[in-house]
Each structure stands twice: as C-alpha cells, then as structure tokens.
Amino acid sequence: MDFSLLTDLNKDRAARRAAILVTEMTDGRQRLVRKSDDFSADPLAEELAKRFRSGKSGMITTEGGEVFLNVSLPAPRLVIIGAVHISQALVPMAEVAGLDVTVIDPRTAFATEDRFPGSTLKADWPEEVLKDTPLDAFTAVAAVTHDPKIDDFPLMEALKTGCFYVGALGSRKTHAKRLERFTEAGLAPELFDRIDAPIGLDIGAASPEEIAVAVLGAIIKALRTAPGVAA
Amino acid sequence: MTATETTSIPDVLKTAESWRGAGRSVALATVVETWGSAPRPVGSHLVIDAEGNFEGSVSGGCVEGAVVSEAIDVIETGKPTTLEFGVADETAWRVGLSCGGRIRVYVEPVS
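Output (structure tokens, whole complex):
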C-alpha cells in the first residue's frame, strides 16, 4: 500500500468518514473511495454502494480479475448521558470493547476528572455538547441520569439521527411518562420502539457494575445485528 | 481522546502509519477471504516490520507466525503476495486453523 494512501485512510477514519479501499488483486493497484464522494461514474459504483450499506468487506470478480473491497466504517461511539455510578463502570468496559466513549453531564459535582480519569468528559448540557459533535448512525446513546431535564433532549436527538442504540434508564412507569413528554414534543410514536427501556439486556443486573454489563451487552447486540453499522 | 488512546488496544492501521513514518520497513497483511468458521473476519489486519515485530491478528494466533515470515520476504522483494491457510492445506500439520476453516491473506509492502 502506498504510504500516502494509508495516511489518507487513517485521516478518514479519524474524521469518522466511511471509505472503501479498493485493491486490484491482479496487479496490486489501490484506490480509496469515500462514501461522500460522487462515485456514480465508477465502474464498481453499484457494488460500492451495496458495500457501504452492508458494511461488509469482501472479494468480487470483475472482467479485469479479482478485486478486494475493504470497507472502513466510522468506529462505533458511545455517548453516555450522566456521570453516575453506572457510567464509572461502563466507561472502561466499553473502551475495552472498542467503543469511543464520551460522558456528558452538566452537573459538575458528578462530571469530575477524579471520577472519570482519562475519559472524554463534557461537563456541559447535552444541547451544547451535541451542537459541536452531533450524533449519527454509528453512535450509541445511553441516558442514565434519571433526570428528564438532562436525558430527554439527547434521547430525542438519538431517535431523530438514527443512532444504532438508544437506551434509557428508568422503570416502566418512568418510561411511560417519558414517552408522554416525547409525544407532546411532537416525536413520531413509531420511533419509540427503538428505545431500550428498562435499559440493558435482561440478565437480572442489580449493582451499578452489573447494569453496566447489561447495557454494554445490549449495545454490542445492536451493533452486531443492525446492517451497515459494523464492518 | 479516543478509546485507543485511553487503553492499550492497538489500532493496526495507525500502527502501520507510525512505524512507516518512523522509517521502519513495513508490510500489511489483510484477510481477504474466509471459508467455513474463520477466527477473524474479512478485512482484519496484521502489521509486520522487517525485524518480525507485529501487531494485530489475521487468525486467533494459529497462522500469524507463518504470515510474519512471509511478510519479511514481501518487505525484501517489495512484491505483494497472497497466502492461503486451512485444514486442506498440505502444511496443515505445521500451520493451519484448528477451527477447520480456511482463510486467504493478502500481504503487501507499505511504501
């Protein structure tokens, strides 16, 4: 691989741009196609579009011989709303599982470096943070503050932007009230089924650490079963 | 800060860039096809330098040794090559996939 092609690909990955590295197996020639490019004139246009949708890398046979398409989708990201006890366990576990993690909590007593050493921590309102770093289909959102003033906005944004996982802490009763507020805010009710509530896989989790495992399990399940999210 | 900066889990393509950027001779191995139960999916990478240092994986550790020695040849010749591993392989007794699958690995120099 040409070194400049490798640095270009790494730049795309850092900027969360989907790209496909095309390798002609017969002579080793390579090129990079970005999802944002207009590749309609590309001889492989149809195949490239299909691969961007499925996220699957693979070998194809063309008139000119075998061609390998390596699909690079943005790394899955987890945005946790609430710098609470569950989050303290969830951050390191999610990082080990390969997720890029951000914790947002406007309550500065919770969002401290001491409680989240080395983490990407934003001690600000989700409304402000998401202005600069918007949610996308490659992002999971877990809202765990129990406070509608903090949780509601990012949950609604997550549904609107098609986040691959949307989880909300709270009992069934709390969740029913939440959906009432979302309906009043004009959100389409058909989106409500996308919310994982009560949050996490049903493994009988009791402690904050166990709930973190249940949440991470639900995120990985969503990541690996939704098409075009994980490469 | 990204997950790869806060933990020690390597990002193979970034490693390839930093090794090459530091002047080391580098080859990149990529799983391009799998049949049956293969330990690592298509698109998985292993980066190798001329001294045989490597990071990443193309199998669960079954064939990395063989890929590394082939990669050192690729670094010397500058020519990419394709390798196949599996139980049907005649070298199965030495290097093969214990899971019974087959994989095809493309090894190319980073130049």
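The CA atoms of residues 29 and 67 of chain B lie 8 Å apart.
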